Amino acid sequence: MTDSTRILEEMNDRSREVFRRVVEGYLESGDPVGSRTLTRTLSEKVSAATIRNVMQDLEFLGLLDSPHVSAGRVPTQLGLRMFVDGLLEVGDLDSTDREKIDATLGNASGDVGTMLDRVSTALSGVTHGASLVLAPKHEAPIKHIEFVSLGHDRALVVLVFADGHVENRLFTPPAGQTPSSMREAANFLNAVAEGRTLSELGQAVRTEISKRRQEIDSLARDLVENGLALWTNEGGQNERLIVRGRSNLLGTEEEEQDLERIRTLFDDLERKRDIAEFLELAEQGDGVRIFIGSENKLFSLSGSSLVVSPYMNADRKIVGAVGVIGPKRLNYGRIVPIVDYTAQLVGKLISDRG
Fold first, then answer.
1. In terms of C-beta density within 10 A (0-12 exposed, 13-18 middle, 19 or more buried), how is residue 335 classed?
2. CB burial class (10 A; 0-12, 13-18, 19+) of residue 302?
3. d(CA 104, CA 117)
4. Which parts of the sequence belong to the Heat-inducible transcription repressor HrcA C-terminal domain (predicted)?
5. Is the pLDDT of residue 180 over 60?
6. Which of 324, 322, 335 is nearest to 91 (CA)?
7. Tens digits of per-residue pLDDT, 158-168?
8. This model's pTM is above 0.70
9. Going from the N-terminus, what domains does the chain have, and what CATH number goes with each?
10. DSSP class of residue 161?
11. Are the C-beta atoms of 160 and 143 separated by less than 8 Å?
């Protein structure tokens, strides 16, 4: 249970109604709501002094704030979160809004990018806010992959897919990586990429890592059991096999060969772990057209709010999201069903395209 949910459940009916009326009044007008205004709208007839006491309690809880000494109250960030989570009454999608969205997306021709541009236009037009559309990443088989260093903390992965699609994604490489290590990672991946999607390629690398780890375990088992060696940080990223008194304890050529084999396998294991990390970062990296119809700086603006909903493909897998960015005093009751409906519609169109 979140803190806001707990606070809401502990409120009495009067406090809950005063809080709800303040938030609804603020969302509708943008102005602070005073006690005298509430005396005309509350279901229970109480004095302005009583309402002021309740509002002071809500302010003490961090749910309301008073912009000026003699003014009414407005909801705080915590108060808005609690209202949206526990008190927001979401109505049905307005028929006019539905028609506008349907009209914009009704023509399903063109590629996915064109369709998502229309989604962005529809959301912006209907809500008068900035729209956010997270596009699905391409899942065709990979033909070629290349990593390009852009600096010590920035790199680009270029993905060429078998269907001719080319995608560039920016990511932050693991610390200590060099252009040569990136080339080595790309060479390995290109050798095993044929016919595999990016996620399948990641699974193939993880399988290779598991096989190498099992080989090392098998070779090292006897050495460890005989007290000739021990693990440090076993299973971790910096694990090592420490050999005790190697010159005295390792008497046979076979044991020497095992140690050399373990060293070689360790080197290979570390390379594959680096490659797996590269691939994971590339899969999560920013595509060149993720945010459509809005700019990243909107997220850092004080007083902005985001209503977002994921959409799914035919396999019920979340592949993207649509949303609306606007001021804190969004008409949440209207925006939520618009975003929800648009996400469902996009998911259906994506599924129909296979």
1. buried
2. exposed
3. 10
4. 115-336
5. yes
6. 335
7. 888 887 777 77
8. no
9. 3-86 (1.10.10.10), 95-135+289-352 (3.30.450.40), 142-223+251-287 (no CATH)
10. E
11. yes
